Amino acid sequence: NLQGGRALPEGIRTGTRMLQPHEFQERMNTGVVIDCRPPEAFAGAHIPESYNVWLQGLPAFAGWLADESTAIFLVVDEPAHIHEAVTSLARIGLDRVEGVLGGGIEAWRDQGLALAMSGTISAQECAERMKKNEVRVLDVRDDNEREEKRIPGSLHTYVGDLEKKIPHLPKEDNLVVHCSVGHRAGLAASILKRN
Question: DSSP letters of 53-80?
Answer without folding.
Answer: --GGGHHHHGGGT--TT-EEEEE-SSTH
